[in-house]
Design brief:
Elements lengths: L1 H16 L1 H24 L2 H20 L5 H22 L5 H38 L1 H29 L8 H38 L1
Helix pairs in contact: 2-5, 2-6, 3-7, 4-5, 4-6, 4-7, 5-6, 5-7, 6-7
Keywords: Cell membrane, Membrane, Sporulation, Transmembrane, Transmembrane helix
Protein name: Stage II sporulation protein M
Organism: Peribacillus faecalis
Length: 211
């Protein structure tokens, strides 16, 4: 009970301290999602046809069970997401990392928006169903993790800039860096969980819809 109260208080304190950053980052991510969906509408007929052709081939492989193994999907998913989150995490230690971090977050939103937008645009209700089982489950975990680590990355970058250029020294940097390292470990644990969902649950759900 005490541990639960401790984590609740810590979470509330964290959100309260970084509420303005969270709002900015969430809005930027949603802008990326909207931009991605707009790009779908700007594609030419031939571009949509080409994408739909490859998508149909993929669904055919899913239906026949010839798609790559779950273990391979899991490994690739975890590898890709750790690299993406890791890059944002590393940029937090860099003074020049802020604009790149924001671009990476925006691009993530664009990919999600484009994927869902194209599926719905090309396949209507069936596309929406596929998006629910193939895109949404793992991103329920990955998107909050992305927003969380981006917030910490920007906060640390601003603290370092304050120390270097504005000579602001409010608290020792070592405990901050230790917490920052711990946050990355926590993110990796959640990424592994998202990888399990993407590799072992989403394909079977998608197969039932495609069939």
């Amino acid at each position: 009970m005490k541990k639960k109260m401790f984590f609740q208080n810590a979470a509330q304190s964290h959100i309260r301290d970084y509420s303005s950053l969270y709002i900015f980052i969430i809005v930027l991510f949603l802008m990326g999602v909207i931009c991605g969906s707009i790009i779908v509408n700007s594609l030419s007929f031939m571009q949509k046809e080409d994408l739909l052709y490859y998508l149909t081939r993929f669904f055919g492989e899913v239906k026949t069970g010839t798609v790559t193994t779950s273990s391979h999907i899991f490994a690739e998913s975890v590898k890709h997401n750790i690299q993406y989150i890791g890059l944002i995490w590393i940029l937090g230690i860099s003074i020049i990392g802020i604009p790149i971090t924001l671009v990476l977050l925006f691009l993530k939103g664009m990919v999600v928006g484009f994927t869902v937008g194209f599926l719905v645009n090309a396949m209507s209700w069936e596309g929406f169903q596929i998006a629910l089982v193939a895109v949404l489950p793992q991103n329920i975990i990955l998107v909050p993790i992305m927003i969380f680590i981006t917030t910490l990355s920007l906060a640390l970058s601003m603290k370092i800039i304050g120390r270097v250029f504005l000579k602001q020294v409010r608290q020792p940097i070592k405990p901050i860096l230790l917490k920052y390292m711990l946050s990355f470990v926590v993110c990796v644990i959640f990424i592994i969980g998202a990888g399990v969902i993407e590799a072992y649950f989403s394909p079977s759900l998608m197969k039932s819809i495609v069939s």
